[in-house]
Amino acid sequence: MDSKTKDQIIKKYFDTLLKAKKVAPKVFVIKILVYFKNHHEWVSGELNAYI
Fold this sequence. Notes:
The N and C termini lie far apart (about 25 Å). The chain has helices at about 5-20, 25-35, 40-50. It has 3 helices and no strands.
C-alpha cells in the first residue's frame, strides 16, 4: 500500500471517529488507526489525545 493511500485511510477514519455517535464504530476505527500509528508521528499523538 502506498503512502498516499495510507494518508487517505487515516484521514477518513479520523473523520469517522469524530462523527461516530455509537461506541462500536469508534472501537473499530481506533483499532484501524492503531495499525497506522507508525505511519506518521502525529497519528499516535492524536489517538492518545482522543482516548
